[in-house]
Amino acid sequence: MIPTILGITVACFVLIQFVPGGPVEQMIANIRAASAAQGANPAAAISEAEIENIKRNFGFDQPAYVRYFTWLGSALTGDLGESYTYNRPVLEVILERMPISLFFGLTSFLLSYAVCIPLGMWKARKHRSLFDTASSIVIFAGYVIPGYALGILLIIFFAGGTFLDLFPLRGVVSDNFELLSPGAKVLDFLHHMILPMVCYMVGEFAFLTMLMKNGILEELKKDYMRTAILKGMLPKTALFRHALRNALIPIATRMSEIFTLVFAGALLIEKVFDIDGMGLLVWNSIVSRDYNVVMGIILISSILTLFGRLFSDLLYTYIDPRIRLQ
């Protein structure tokens, strides 16, 4: 995991160096634009010495490899640097947007697994029935619709668009949120979250349901299931006692995402519903060339992703004792 993380940070740091319009260039452009607005000559607004001072202030007077090891040394101590855009510590900027993304990630994760596993099992038991066909149509319709497009449709139909006005149009709380009672604040927050949550869940919901169904169907075809049923075990009992555990192995792979829930963010969904979460932070940081924020998010998300993969591998051994880590 350690060399993988180092490799990721090196690759991303190198790529960032080739992106034009960094903080030095932006500050120079702002100074020249301000000078032009006052009627002065933009080219003479800033001297070479001042440019060198700007580079020194941002640390760009050093070679790229020196800047990388300086950043890495600070990151190992928990210091991810200062944000060029927000003029605040990077970790503080990330933590500020983490709660809303964690809520979306954790809620969608729990709801998806709580619904998709039993739904996939039921679809497998009712394979090729009217219920299976009808639910598959709905599931695949949701799967092919992008989350942001679904969000626009939901706003039109249910958020004061052309039809019903049942949900708020945007944001995570109402304007009078501070005046509400604690219970009313919770209800107001949940009321705002329903439509965005549907958009977050729609793609993963379809994938997990069909993955579970296909896993169960595959297990039902195997000899050990036929033998269990021929010995007198009820099909339902055999399904829960034997097939379910083996069918959960592919599902366990997705469990690794539990470690990256704090970075659950979808830019376009957040733009549609005006939610200032991690997706919007990543996009704004890339557009504004806020290198420290970008590298901080990459570092933390990489570490959590790798821990998620490790958790997934350990989960395999619990679900199926035949699997052993060598």
What is the distance, rounded to the nearest whole angstrom, between the alpha carbons of the first and last residues?
A: 16 Å
Strand-residue proportion: under 5%
Q: What spatial form do the alpha-carbon principal axes imply?
A: globular
How many β-strands, per DSSP? 0
Offer a few descriptive terms.
0% strand; 2 domains; 326 residues; MetI-like fold; mainly alpha; 13 helices; globular
Quick take:
By secondary structure, this protein is an all-alpha fold. The chain has helices at residues 2-17, 23-37, 48-58, 64-76, 90-125, 130-144, 147-158, 182-220, 223-230, 235-254, 267-273, 278-287, 291-319.
Structure write-up:
- With 326 residues, the protein is mostly helical.
- It has 2 domains: 2-76, no CATH class; 90-318, MetI-like fold.
- 71% of the residues lie in helices and 0% in strands.
- The protein contains 13 helices and no strands.
- It has helices at 2-17, 23-37, 48-58, 64-76, 90-125, 130-144, 147-158, 182-220, 223-230, 235-254, 267-273, 278-287, 291-319.
- α2 (23-37) crosses α3, α7 (147-158) packs across α8 and α11 packs across α12 (278-287).
- The longest helix has 39 residues, at 182-220.
- The protein is globular.
- The model has no long low-confidence stretch (mean pLDDT 82).
